[in-house]
Amino acid sequence: MISYIIRRVLLAIPVVVGVVTLVFLSLRLMPGDPALIMAGEAAPQEVVERIRDQLGLDRPLIVQYGIYMGNLLRGELGQSVRTRRSVSYELGVRINATMELASASMAIAVVFGLIAGLVSATRQYSLVDYGTMVGALMGISIPVFWFGLMAMWVFSVQLGWFPVGGRGTLRHLVLPAITLGAMSTGMIARMTRSSMLEVLRQDYVRTARSKGVTERVVQMKHALRNALIPVMTIAGLQFGTLLGGSVLTETVFTWPGVGRLMVDSIMNRDYPVVQGAVLLIAVIFTVVNLLVDIAYSFVDPRIRYD
Amino acid sequence: MTKSQKEEKIRKSRGAFHEAFKGLLRNRTATVGLAMVTVLAIVGILAPVLAPYDPLRPTMRERLTPPTSAHWLGQDELGRDILSRVIYGARISLTIGIVSVGVGMALGVPWGLLSGFYGGKLDLISQRLLDILLAFPPIILVILVVTVLGPGLWNAMIVIGITSVPRYSRVVRGSALSLRDAEYVQAARALGSSDVRVLLRHVLPNVLGPVVVLGTLYTATAILTAAGLGFLGLGAQAPTPEWGAMLSRGREYLRVAPHVSAFPGLAIFFSVLGFNLLGDGLRDALDPRLRGVR
């Protein structure tokens, strides 16, 4: 078990290094002079020079890389070109908002996705099954930013039930969380259904039924526990979808998180902040997937011997 | 799986694509999906004929007019006809789908074939490279690259294609790996076939089914992602009638003119749903093993 965890963690390290390298190169390989682009065409020469100096752009690439990596190990992600505050500070004050939104959406997706998938699988080919699966497919297909806007128009503008945007109370969280969670709810519902149907065909389920266990116990105890394994993987991957979708959802609902910071920074050409935000999201996603993999090996011992 | 589906699976060895198409037409959701995609294609191709007005011509006196008998879907913030813009937008979305999926397949399929077929160090290194791409939520990677290359529809389409490379590569690699030692591949080699010939004639045809399914599902994803970029101002630029960008402009007028955002969004929803339904149906018809791939 321990060796599996160690192996899995070691495998994640080159991925993180690769991610960091890719993000590092993205700014340096920009066509044109990055310092000039960030400062803006009309900026005075000293501003351009300040930015160039700040990012060390006049040094050889390999030296820049060494400095970047060294800073990163100390948790320094550089400095915002606009606010001149450190990128870690800018991200730090917003990450809680993003995690709050993503966690709430995940909770919605897991609870409703599981219930919908279970209801569907246990009533296969019924009207309820068709209805639920059509709903799930719609959740997967709906553009998150459109769904958010329309929900805002109906529930905030017309009915006045929820605030139009911002963060603060639970009422601020409801619409963004539902909007962001819609796609993942659909994904989890579909996965739960197909996984349950697969398990319900297994021999051990037939054995359980033949020894007289009630259908409810068969479904909840014998089938569901095994069906949950692939659902876990999908749920882990969905966390990435949620982090990606948060960029759009936060923009729609003016939610003060990392996603919105990223979009604002792109508009301001504040690339150190954009890169820091991308890096943070990619690392969170990698760590979540690592944790899911490890949890997976607890639930399903077969995976450890692959 | 019903009895008829089982029988079909057995018959699949003969005329696989003919059977698959018949299976597709028997599948109700797939038929609906195919019909929706066909509508989208026809609207896109015939846009100049179908659009009642010039999609770019402003009429400032009629700004934000709600739907009327002259303008069925109303007019936008510059008084342009929303119906005409939505119709022309279908062209753009189709292009996005075709270009992104084309780029993804053109890179991902050979990548997976070579990786799986030759194995060893090449496989190890190429798969680790893909792991790095997979570590980013796709839209985040697209945002990073588009930020570097500059916003615009073409950049967006190509990068969206690149983010799907790992998915194609993984599926193709798995099949290539298992086919490498298949008897008929060994036989072809014994008869003196070159690696290229073995790959193209004997391995590739066997992986096409899953690739077509993935391609259809990724068309939906590509349209959704490109619209998202358009919404953020990183995709198509004004005055291009791209649905995501149109929706974004309408956002400012949500209180007074919700129709400006509502209809382009509905069009995105319709297209994505169509490709998802078709992809689901194709998957059931071509390769049930792929269930739950996304």
Blueprint (SSEs and pairs):
The complex is a heterodimer of chains A (306) and B (294).
Chain A lengths: L1 H27 L5 H6 L5 H11 L5 H13 L13 H36 L4 H15 L2 H15 L11 H31 L2 H8 L4 H38 L5 H10 L3 H29 L7
Helix pairs in contact in A: 1-4, 1-12, 5-6, 5-8, 5-10, 5-12, 6-8, 7-8, 7-10, 8-10, 9-10, 10-11, 10-12, 11-12
Chain B lengths: L2 H9 L4 H11 L1 H18 L1 H4 L31 H37 L1 H15 L3 H12 L3 H11 L1 H15 L3 H8 L4 H38 L10 H9 L7 H28 L8
Helix pairs in contact in B: 2-13, 3-5, 3-13, 5-6, 5-8, 5-9, 5-11, 5-13, 7-8, 8-11, 9-11, 10-11, 11-12, 11-13, 12-13
Largest sheet of chain B, described in full? none
- Structural class category of chain A: mainly alpha
Would you list the SSEs of chain A in sequence order as H and E?
A: HHHHHHHHHHHH
The main pleated sheet of chain A reads as: none
What's the number of domains of chain B? Answer: 1
CATH class (first level) name of the domain at 87-299 in chain A:
Mainly Alpha
User: What shape does the CA trace of chain B take?
Assistant: elongated
In the CATH hierarchy, the architecture of the domain at 87-299 in chain A is Orthogonal Bundle
Under the CATH scheme, the architecture of chain B is Orthogonal Bundle
Query: Would you count the extended β strands of chain A for me?
Result: 0
Discrete helix count of chain A: 12
CATH topology of chain B: MetI-like fold
Any idea what the shape of chain A is? flat
Radius of gyration of chain A using CA atoms only: 24 Å
